[in-house]
Write a structure and sequence with these properties.
- The protein has two domains: 281 residues, 3-Layer(aba) Sandwich (Aminopeptidase); 188 residues, Glucose Oxidase, domain 1.
- The chain has 14 helices and 18 strands.
- The strands form three sheets. Strands 1-10-12-11-15-18-16-17 form an eight-stranded mixed beta sheet, sandwiched between helices.
- 41% of the residues are buried.
Length: 572
């Protein structure tokens, strides 16, 4: 019986094997057809960017390991060198640091603590302001609430501030938050961007006009800081200008300025070696600040201890940008650029502002290099410093390589730029003209990312309508399809301008400079310039999506037969 069953089984194999072999061959053919890698460069960019991303690894090192990167600080220089070496290790060429400036002295925090010690111990959430001087050891002193409403009340504090720890401002009301902190752009918001009217006359800047009351308050604030300095106050403490729940927004120390100043006017910055002496300055969480004010107003005598040790870096006053590139082929003398600013404020680790944009730009370069793509134009990445102090690094780079606007020298007696002429009466100042550098005609476009961790939703056209059909075509590769595993969500093109970051340095001289539209997430509500600007607030999937789209845009721009169209500009 065993033999009989064996024979039947063997016969079944011979009878069924032709069909089995055919089915197996068909399955292998189908599998080959569905899994064969695409040869389309954009499909390959999407696959590499979404499935083998290194963007979070890059950002973690930049923000967690190196940490905050105040312009011209030791951390900033370390970040310059690390990004140069990392880009070089991926195979990019001509990696180097490019000096600009002089910027001024660096600043780094060595040690800090602050707490109430009488009438009870109260730990405090506080951070020193950048470029604040130190306290030369632990200071324990009475806390004085210094809130004069006018100059007459200011006089009442004479003789009361010497050696004191001073609360400088009124309490700020803390309201319950009924709205969510994190948001994404919805269809209504994106439609409003898409339907935005064409901007007039370049970037729209807010023309801030102060009321007499606002001007008086501003001038009183300056006199308060000068009085604290003159009286010998030990420490000046402000409440966080925004945020609550332990979120503190911290930027630069306040420098007493000679003469009256207006908001937005450029006095002597704290990083200037010639800046006047300053009082050590802190920012305190608003809830803690308000409690101290209420305790003092209730008649309680409050003492604090503060220990602030800082270091200034004066040996090298220059700032540095990190630059590297992928050489082009037949159009290698022409350039497509991308980038973001690497400098940050110091209370967080500069993750969303703007380690995110830096890491996305670096990842875009890694993707193109890893795939072995050969762009026709040279693709150059620039990681800027000095952005937080006024786009200083990118402006210096653009002026050095591409050009700048300059007022032509007028004849004797001509206007001096403010509408006032010489002795023959008022004349208008001549309009500035563009002074081009040799590489001006070689740049095709610059693409920037600097609005936090949110995914790319499209592009601000910066008033350049001619690029709309081109960018529309490029975004078609990222249209949402049921078969995709990701909702790309990137389809909006807005003719509107957007400001506040490094693409403006290019746009200012008529070169195509673009900033991507991004989801807000928690940028303005929680992370921008705050102690919550840290790696844990980063959205990994959004970072992968943004890196992939940026890689596709710069690669497409590098492959065009012609450079990106430019908008018209007076004086060009």
């Amino acid at each position: 019986m065993l033999r009989r069953y064996a024979a039947v089984a063997l016969l079944s194999v011979f009878v069924l094997s032709p069909n089995a072999v055919f089915a197996q061959q068909a399955a292998q053919t189908a599998a080959t057809q569905t899994t064969a890698p695409s040869t389309d460069p954009i499909d390959r960019i999407k696959d590499e960017g979404m499935n083998r991303s290194q963007v979070m690894k890059t950002l973690s090192y930049l923000s967690d390991v190196i940490g905050p990167r105040l312009t011209n600080s030791p951390n900033m220089k370390r970040a310059n060198e690390w990004t140069r070496d990392q880009l070089t290790s991926w195979g990019l060429q001509n990696g180097h640091l490019e000096a600009w400036g002089p910027f001024g002295r660096g600043w780094s925090l060595k040690r800090f603590s602050a707490q109430v010690v009488e009438p009870q111990d109260i730990p405090l959430i506080a951070y020193p302001k950048a470029w604040s001087p130190g306290t030369n050891g632990v200071i324990t002193a009475d806390v004085v609430y210094f809130n004069p409403k006018d100059e007459a009340e200011l006089e009442q504090f004479k003789g009361k501030l010497k050696g004191a720890i001073v609360l400088t401002s009124p309490m700020r009301e803390v309201k319950a938050r009924f709205e969510v902190l994190g948001t994404r752009r919805d269809e209504k918001d994106l439609l409003a961007l898409a339907d935005a009217p064409e901007p007039r006359g370049g970037v729209q800047r807010r023309n801030f006009q102060m009321t007499p009351e606002q001007r008086a308050a501003f001038q009183l604030s300056g006199k308060k800081y000068q009085m604290m300095l003159d009286e010998g106050a030990a420490v000046a403490i402000d409440p966080s200008r925004a945020g609550d729940g332990g979120t503190i927004f911290v930027q630069s120390a306040t420098v007493p300025q000679p003469g009256p100043t207006e908001p937005g006017s450029r006095g002597i910055p704290p990083y200037d070696k010639s800046a006047p002496k300053m009082t050590p300055q802190l920012v305190l969480a608003v809830e803690h600040y308000n409690r101290l004010v209420r305790m003092i107003e209730a008649g309680e005598k409050v003492k604090m201890s503060v220990d602030l040790a800082v270091a200034y870096q004066d040996a090298d006053l220059m700032g540095y940008n990190t630059v590297a590139e992928i050489p082009g082929t037949d159009l290698k003398d022409e350039i497509v650029m991308l980038g973001g600013h690497m400098d940050s404020w110091h209370s967080g680790t500069g993750a969303t502002d703007n380690g995110a944009g830096v890491s996305v730009g670096m990842e875009a370069m890694r993707i193109i290099q890893a795939l072995g793509l050969k762009p026709r134009r040279t693709i150059r990445i620039a990681l800027w410093s000095g952005e937080e102090q006024g786009l200083l690094g990118s402006r210096a780079y653009v002026a050095e390589h591409f050009g700048k606007m300059e007022a032509p020298a007028g004849p004797a007696g001509a206007g001096n730029g403010n509408g006032n002429g010489g002795g023959n009466g008022a004349t208008s100042a001549p309009a500035p003209v563009l002074i081009k550098k040799p590489d001006y005609e070689k740049l095709s476009a610059y693409f920037n990312l600097d609005n936090g961790t949110g995914k790319v939703r499209g592009v601000y056209l910066q008033g350049n309508e001619a690029v709309r059909p081109l960018f529309r075509q490029w975004l078609m590769a990222f249209r949402d399809r049921p078969e995709d595993k990701i909702v790309w969500g990137a389809s909006t093109l807005s003719i509107s301008n957007t400001g506040g970051t490094d693409h403006l340095s290019f746009d200012a001289i008529g070169l195509p400079g673009f900033q991507f539209i991004q989801d807000e997430i928690e940028y303005d509500t929680r992370t921008h310039h705050s102690n919550q600007d840290v790696f844990d607030r980063i959205q990994a999937d959004d970072m992968k999506q943004a890196s992939t789209i940026m890689a596709a845009f710069v690669y497409n721009a590098a492959m065009l037969d012609q450079k990106i169209p430019r908008k018209s500009m007076p004086g060009r």
